[in-house]
Amino acid sequence: MAKARTQFVCSHCGSSFAKWAGRCPDCGTWDALEEFRIDKSATQDAHRPAFASPAGGSGVDDASRVQALPITDIGEAENTPRIVTGIGEFDRVLGGGLVPGSAVLLGGDPGIGKSTLMLQAAGRLARQGRPVLYVSAEESAAQIRLRAERLAQHSNVSHELPENLYVLADTNLARIVEQTRKLNPAAVVIDSVQMIYKGDLPAAPGSVTQLRTCTLELVYHAKAAGHALLLVGHVTKSGNLAGPKLLEHMVDAVLAFEGDRYHAHRVVRAVKNRFGNTLEVGLFEMTGTGLAEVTDAGGLLAKEHAPRPGSVVCPVLSGSRCLLVEIQALTATGFLGSAKRKATGLDSNRLAMLIAVLEKRAELRLADQDVFTSSVGGLKIAEPAADLPLALAIAGAHLNRSLPEKTAAVGEIGLGGEVRHVQQLERRLAEAQRLGFSRVLVPKGSKLKVEGLDTHPVDSLDQAIQELQ
Ligand code: TYD
Ligand code: MG
Q: Which of 116, 120, 153, 234 is the pocket-test mutation for ligand 1 (most atoms within 8 Å of CB)?
């Protein structure tokens, strides 16, 4: 009989241990270790399809058949054509479409639009000819049809439901794999992976054991059969993708669906992508008939941007394009020594640094002020080029002054309060000009001239603050 080995896996960070503990020794989360039983014969079997040579073979007996190849003899993976979904923004985040045999995990808050995006993508793919399997583990098949009809109403492709889109409302792994074998689809969507269970595992659906085993098997099956696998994952109360580290290494790409469910804009960001750039974002807007692509990045910005104290627009680079993002700040009287500093969509370490620079180099007294900052539109900004606009927003909020109309700012700020160069200034200026800005504060020494745009060089943060009126 096969021996079963027991491990304890942290549901937060994915580390595994031989012994149970109340607190994960790696990430420090309490009560997160769950028992994980590994049946040795089952793991050997589960690993087989993914790494087996085309001739098959299993275990030690067939070891002679498996062969390492010189790297030049290996077929180029780059040449495998990608499966383009036709939803431009989604393809962009994926790095140009789905790679056959790859697995993509899409995570996001409930109600953000994961199922809608997956159904739209599955529908588009099915129209290309090959079957697509949509496994709905949360909603009934009738509900999916209803949603698909609603999405098709205003689709610019076709108002008919795609015949090649197969829906399976099931949560049993064996039945899902069976259907996949029968259909031989181009892509399989699993909505959501947390609900899938394997019958012979003594663990509840959604537990670490089930999640790990089911995902592994689905991924291996996808690799063996060559179809793209799209997994929908939930986000936990703390905002992490449930079992993030647990699933991250098993899939080729992790996409995060972000945005505020009470606002229309949605951002799909690649957290990890083995086949593309993680800087790319896909922009969507939730409409009455599904997710619409926001191809013009100007859509993120409020239509009429009026000057307001504490609000500065910044052209930020995100992958292959430039987006104009409004950065807002608010200061309010707090308590000396325990003043709050909050950053939404911005880096909080950068915020702390900028507040210190504002105190020291621009003589703004912020020690007893609560400072709240955010990037409007739900986009996360990690670029240092947003330093100057952020510092100006804080200073503006504190001094109750704003930049003149149609003025944007860009620049990195050093610890001495100097404004430093940013990369690809030309693209940023072109985008600002395209969206109707007439003046941009830029780091001194930039000799760029853009027609119709007044570039105003600033040397230091102090000098930039003088521009606030
Ligand atoms: P859904 O895709 O079910 O979210 P998730 O799978 O991430 O939980 O989308 C849910 C929200 O989207 C829901 O509140 C209704 C809204 N919605 C629209 O506004 N328009 C639409 O066409 C659809 C299908 C959904
Ligand atoms: Mg859903």
A: 116
